Amino acid sequence: MKSLLLLFVLLGFLESCSQEDSLSYNECVVSLATVEQVVSSKDFLLKLDNDTVLYPVDNVVNTFEPVKLGRVLINYTILGKNQANGDYNYAIRLNDATNVVTKEITRFSDVLQDSLGNDPVNVSDCWIGSHFLNIAYSYYGANANHFISLVQIPSIVAGQDADINLELRHNAYGDNSKNLYHNVISFDLRSLQLINTLPVKLMLKVKNLKGADTVYSLVYK
């Protein structure tokens, strides 16, 4: 997820931080997490994609309102390891937090074609964690709202060994500006458990900024 660290820099989310793969005390760390066990705006748990659970005992982000099962970009500092048999692994100071747009998978239909759009979008990183398909992406635009969706389609390439075929769709609504914007989005994969036995092989198709199709293979375990 090295490109994700670059994305955080571009988003102005951090200055000099580590990533969750190299957790250390007294240094700020940036991670993508899922909110769990919300008691209040100041009392909740955060679960990283590697299953590490964090408890913000010192929360300096007064504007952040946690939503259970919501995805969030967090900047935090580890204060200590939980020595008791509790619900978390580390106590932290939460330095910053930004909610990440989270969506469900859309079922393809001819009726939705126009609203889904087919504008190019660049994927710099994609990975699965905490039952979410996370995509770091970029597109050209201005101030207009753009629409990003993940669509389940019948097939991508004949002969490909995939259980589920997906396509990342982008509707720019006619916005042709040349400013490059970066963002991250999470798609909930838990609906796939209802019709498939894990692990599930996924094939993700993306129309990149050059107008060519790029295909990614992932496994949802």
UniProtKB/TrEMBL annotation:
Species annotation: Microbacter margulisiae
Biological classification of the source: Bacteria, Pseudomonadati, Bacteroidota, Bacteroidia, Bacteroidales
Residue ranges of domain NigD-like C-terminal in the record: 111-217
InterPro entries noted in UniProt: NigD-like_C_dom_sf, NigD-like_N_sf, NigD-like_OB_dom, NigD_C
Domain NigD-like N-terminal OB residues, every copy: 32-100
Name this polypeptide is given: NigD-like protein
Gene3D superfamilies: NigD-like N-terminal OB domain, NigD-like, C-terminal beta sandwich domain
